[in-house]
Amino acid sequence: MSQAKTIHLHDYTAPSHHIVHTDLTFEIFDEHTLVINRMQVRRMDKESGAMTLHGEGLTLLCVKVDDVKAEGQFECDAEQMVLQCDKDEFVLQVVTKIYPDENTTLEGLYRSGTILCTQNEPEGFRHITYFIDRPDNMSTFTTTIIAETSRYPILLGNGNLVETETYAEGRHMAKWEDPFAKPSYLFALVAGDLGVVSDTFTTMSNREIALNIYVDRGNENKCDHAMRSLKNAMKWDEEVYGREYDLDIYNIVAVDSFNMGAMENKGLNIFNSHYVLADEDSATDQNFMGIESVIAHEYFHNWTGNRITCRDWFQLTLKEGLTVFRDQSFSADMNDASVQRISDVKALRERQFVEDAGPTAHPIKPKSYVEINNFYTATIYEKGAEVIRMLHTFLGEEKYRKAMDLYFETFDAKAVRTEDFLWAMDQQGGFDLERFSRWYAQERTPTLKVHEHYDGVKNEYTLTLQQVIPANVKGEKQLPYYFPLAFTLLDRDGVALQWNLADKRQTLLDKGMLIVQEEEEKFTFTEVTTEPKLSINNNFSAPFKIEHDQADYGFLMQFASDGFIRYEATQKAAMNAIDMFVENGEIDTRYLVNFAAILEDESIGLEAKAFMLELPTLSVLMQEQKEIDIAPISKALNLLKHALATRYKDTMLTIYQQFHKPENSALDAQSMGERAIKNAVLSYLMVLEDEDINALCVVQYENSVTMTDRIVALDLLENYAPDLAQDRLVHFYARYKENTLVMNKYLSVLSASEREGTIDRVQALQNDPVYDVKVPNLVRALIGVFARNAVAFHAPTGHGYAFLAEKVIELDALNPQIASGLTTAFRSYDRLNPNNKALMKDALEMIMNEKEISSNVLELVQKILDV
Ligand SMILES: [Zn+2]
User: Fold this and answer.
1) pTM over 0.85
2) How far is the CA of 275 from the centre of ligand 1 (A)?
3) Which of 107, 123, 177, 298 is flagged as catalytic?
């Protein structure tokens, strides 16, 4: 078993040396790449006679100090080089040889298809050369790339292109210069034969920026949406944050093999092709939305992440939480804000709440880690964004903008901490910094218990709020939170009631926004003329679970003015109905009746309505169970769906016919909404296993021009009419087998299938020619989706667990990051029923007993088994 070393935030010390400028030359050959790295070094700690550089898996050829061979002056081990040198300023030259073609970890320089590309966040650069590979070492970079012209006609680096040259023997050179100091994790290089789509953007100070998207040849026509999204993002950041782009050129490169979604390297973003390429025939509406948000996210990092970066990786949420908040706000402005909010909260609950409830729970600012790659989590990103959103609520738009301006002004070109960000926010006042900071230090999702009392004689309404703060993973007590809580008191017709707050010492942020800060707090409202209905945590103003026994979800489904609350009420009402069925086998008829309030309300936007009609997922329902047992909730869910479809068959068919427009592929909100709503009702109707409806679904597969319609139809046939699915699956495969991105969808439909035998089909698909274990997207589509298929993964035989353990071990040898991503599926271990728990334990022990397991996987398995 490998030794796992824990790194603690409190051990931070500044580096003894600073690499002021880095001049890199990459000579790319068929078998290897030569890296000549000339660093201008400044000694920061005058006491220090030694400089430590990170480096892993490198073949070292030469080390020189001020152009003199540094013989006997340095020592290397598997992770670092220690150089003895007591000069204050010197030029350190290191020459290394690397083998990108053999690099399957996809960190550092590696091959994706015919392209050579890099991924250096967080610690990939040390696989390229020896360096102070930590974010607080900010350096300017010059990059010279030399390669064979025919194989690598395109040579890209960070910053601006300053020189090109053609050499003898069919080789050429490109030199890039990035004038902005940056940490090595933002370094990027791309070499390959690529097609390009170009455009320009004129900034607010009238500078013209060249925009290029590089893709595999033949895919140039699939970049329109990405380019449009980029220009929208550039404009939005100028208008909303006053931030202008700083280089003359902005390049995006799409690659097929990528561990993450995309990477914000300065001036040279590298993207998983999933987040660039799209056309109506191959991408769903969701894919288009995803592209818009990821393109924007990486662009926004130019200021929040690149210009101002993190001092160390414990600060990751400084750039990620903030940038996710920025991309969510952008998407809300580009689309329907309430739909955006519903989808963000839904994602938070399905991913982050699950993480927060399990053994790998951590604060948005962790205090320790073994493998930093394991901390690119929903907590750091999505919960981090909720924390920024609360600050935004406390400050209000105007003060928030001033605080952000101050943040940019004060910390530009620096590597800073979350405390520095909070300092800038605090300069505008408006919130209690000390109490608010707990959101950075504590873990687990808190619950807010809500109790109401109305006194009709005094016209007085009392709201009692109790924060239930779970202990952290170590069992230590945590403190109550300080947060904004949006609410409305409604009369019987859904009209907002007037009121006054009795105790003037309690603060209101705004009319309708309480500031909550105590473990238990009472708010008394006077002059409330009728017994109100409470709508609470409107627009999900704070990341709490709400426990509100007196809530009238039927009323809120019908009358809440806040779109999020209407969605929330339908979810809660469905959860209660499922509980009731699991407890006593009865279907909650009130819920069935109330469902009409959403289904038949024509005033709700179509996309929002499609969300509201969705039943809670198994992942959400599992979280509510004391002891996880899939069969009863899965059965209840299906029966509820069946009961709704039976009761509302005619209405649903009418909606389907009204909005099914097979020829329409437009991407405007109305068209996307029409597709969303009719696919939502179709997914109910298919449960009925009715011949005529099956026929509708087949026609939708065959006649619709959009991938959205086709993939929904294929998925429904696979789950509810497998006999009809067979031919369509064959047809789909034949039509798209050359398109990996579409094949991901094909694999996902099969591995998400809830019918019998899914595991066997998934195992067989590993031998399919379209599958490649070295391409993370394919692994995620087949194995990752299977691990999230609660029915198949948690099968009482334990076969799902054993299969995943096998895959984790196999992948860990190739790509530890992808392997640890799959391992997170085991996080429910502690809460499983005894049968499943014993079986999962066997699978986890199988991984633990493996000799050569990476620290990525080991850290997770140890936390899960609590060893
Ligand atoms: Zn990011």
Assistant:
1) yes
2) 13
3) 298
